[in-house]
Amino acid sequence: MTTTFPDVTISTDRLVLRPFDADDVTALAEMMNDEHITAWTTVAHPYTHADAHAWATRQSHAERTEGRGIVFAVAEFLTQRLVGIVHLQNTNWRTRSTEVGYVTAPWARGEGYASESVLAVVQWLFRDQGFERLELRTAADNTASQQVAQKIGCISEGVLRNAWIVRTQDPDGSWTDTRTDLIVWSLVPEDLEDQDGYNGHDAYGYGLGASADTSGYAVGADWS
Description:
single chain; 224 residues; alpha+beta
């Protein structure tokens, strides 16, 4: 049984999803210090250059090589500017299921990049990798992440009460941990087959399986 994902790059009309490298460190550090990402994830705050270097050069790659999942750095096709991250994690190879988390840089929000990149990964996951379930968890008040889940066709399965900790910013600029509920969403292959345009190409106009051997401020899950 295969227990690691292949080292791949996935392309859409607007985006390239690839492994992280050292050239991403500065942009990654800047992105991860955004207040919305601090609020919805458990990443270190402040997120230092050393944190970014460790993630881009070692930790993100270990997610794949150690069988936990795979991390994609999402970049604009034309500019190669870092747009965000899509992370498959908590992978169960026996049941062929995994969980997705994602973040988008502040400058790139409102362009549909989160849904485009996640959907590209979902299609690769189901068609090329033979997976049967994708799970997504969103904090109860994270409406931006919930909109992404709905846009890509996820089904809401229920609520995990008091299951997560988010951070709220105090007037003095400090951060306080606050418990919250999690909404559980899922996608299975049949959900994509029911969507218009799922016949080898999706609504963004790129072919399924368009990968080659070589990874809204939405955060669906803790990807750190």
